[in-house]
Amino acid sequence: MADAGVPLLDVGLGVFTSAFLVEEIASGLRAVSHGQREAALSQGFTPWQELRFILLPQGLANAWQPIVGQYLNLMKLSSLASGIGFAELTYQVRQIESYNAHAPEAFAVGTALYRAGGGDGRGANASRPGKKTATERPT
């Protein structure tokens, strides 16, 4: 079972990163010289052809490095957010325990939620102990 916060994490990081990606692509397109656009118009290109054959190839080439940097940043932020998720779960368990003094129940539920989210130190999609992940070859 997946962690309940994962869809919210995906949406939040998606919105956050997409704002940067849109600006980087727009900057790459703005970096194409105005002379290239004039040349496309003088050759009789339609606005769609100008975008497809002139602006996008050159604009994406200009924006390639910042886009790669954003995807690397996204990977870093997603791993950081998963660590924060565990810290937040631990904090909430301690808050519940201090509020009603039911420590065993609070920590049992917290542990169950942690394990249900794949929290075993290897990630939610990792193989479980004893489970074969590949067929063994005879030697």
TrEMBL record:
CDD domains from the entry? TM_PBP2
Q: Which residues form the ABC transmembrane type-1 domain?
A: 15-111
Q: What is this protein called?
A: ABC transmembrane type-1 domain-containing protein
Topological category with respect to the lipid bilayer? Multi-pass membrane protein
Q: Name one GO cellular component term.
A: plasma membrane
Q: Recite the UniProt keywords alphabetically.
A: Cell inner membrane, Cell membrane, Membrane, Transmembrane, Transmembrane helix
Q: Where is this region: Disordered?
A: 119-139
Q: Does the keyword Iron-sulfur apply?
A: no
Q: Which SUPFAM superfamilies match?
A: MetI-like
Matching entries from InterPro entries are given as: ArtM/GltK/GlnP/TcyL/YhdX-like, MetI-like, MetI-like_sf
Chief localisation class: membrane
Q: Does the keyword Transmembrane helix apply?
A: yes
BP-aspect Gene Ontology terms: amino acid transport; transmembrane transport
Q: Where, subcellularly, is it found? A: Cell inner membrane
